[in-house]
Amino acid sequence: MTGTMRAAVWEAGSPLRVETIPIPVPRAGEALVQVSACGVCHTDLHVMKGEVRFPSPAVLGHEISGRVVEIGLGTRPEQIPAGIELGDRVVGAFIMPCGTCRRCESGRDDLCERFFELNRLRGVLYDGTSRLERADGSSLAMYSMAGLAEYCVIPLTALAALPHDLPEFESAVLGCAGLTAFGAVHRASGITEGDAVAVIAVGGIGLSIVQLARAAGASTVVAVDLDDAKLRMAADLGATHTINARAESDPVAAVRALVPGGVDVAFEAIGTPATLAQAVAMLAEGGRAVAVGIAAGDAAVSIPITPLVRRAQSIVGSFGARTRTDLPEVIRLSLEGRLSLADTVSRSYDLDEVAAAFDDLGRGAIAGRAIVRMR
Ligand SMILES: [Zn+2]
Ligand SMILES: [Zn+2]
Q: Strands 139-142, 58-59: parallel, antiparallel or unpaired by DSSP?
């Protein structure tokens, strides 16, 4: 397919601008997807603010839904995920595993060495180049698949088929919020039936964690946030208790008052030193704190050693999940109604309003997740 498309271009120090650029051409092992919607995630905001280093100029956006319109020449049939054909609806995940490094070979797509080295550090795909350029031929870096555009090129390893019973636009958030929550709950937390859980920060990812923790059998889920609207959404989606950390002088004591002895699992979904320290302080003996929120720059936290050792607690980081095995699982959970998209996605913007969408996110004005619709 040739022609031009509109894309939100980010240049360090300037606001996002919608530009008209050539439609990218997929190569072997890649698909061209006509994007339906792309989620508005804090990680993109971290990049724009310079808190996560990334080359500029670039097209950001890393969780999409859309339709496969072209498969790259030279793609081998076994590279195409089961059930995906031209014209099919798909979801794209932000971790786009290379499929060949030693981590991918052992199934750990979340640790793909080449993804971090090529895409996250250099903004390119697996042949070492970007598929995007400006009208003048200068290259644009790609953050994941560069989903804030009308079309994107994405490695086939990062796609899963989107069933017709799930919504075309809202399903975009399965590729980062859904996948990240799945990894935190099912890969990192060691959650078991009857566990008591705290979720600190109930934005798009925290709300998904609340739902998946309930689905995994947690009997108590305490949502902690600064915003009552977000806490109400958490309660609607299965949180058994809510704590407004602005109203409570000590959220740790408030959690411990609700759950004597502390929680078995505390998820931290905002990425600040204070909240990660709180997550650890909320734990019961043998409890696990799961760090999910991306922190700004080299933020660090100080943790008292003796209680950690004496109570045999753990602190574990969790980044995304294993795309090729877990994205289809996330879609299945959503299809079963255990991960509600309608209740997670609260706002949608047109591509022309993309700068306002990120302003609203930065001001904390979005409860749940927002999406940008491309058409
Ligand atoms: Zn994200
Ligand atoms: Zn890999």
A: parallel
Cα 130 to middle of ligand 2, angstroms? 18
Question: What pLDDT, in 10s, does the model give residues 128-168?
Answer: 999 999 999 999 999 999 999 999 999 999 999 999 999 99
Question: What CATH homologous superfamily does 4-176+321-373 map to?
Answer: Medium-chain alcohol dehydrogenases, catalytic domain (3.90.180.10)
Is the model's pTM score more than 0.90? yes
Which residue type occupies 370?
Answer: A
Measured from the alpha carbon of residue 157, the closest ligand is 2
pLDDT digits (tens, 9 = 90+) for 260-276: 999 999 999 999 999 99
User: Hey, where are the domains in the chain?
Assistant: 4-176+321-373, 179-317
Task: Give the separation between CA 217 and CA 212, rounded to whole angstroms.
Answer: 9
The rounded distance, in Å, linking the Cα atoms of 262 and 274 is 18
Mean residue pLDDT across the chain: 96
Partnered with residue 223 across adjacent β-strands are 199, 242
CA of 101 to the centre of ligand 2 (A): 4
Which numeric CATH code is attached to 179-317?
A: 3.40.50.720
Spacing, Cα 94 to ligand 2 middle (Å) = 13
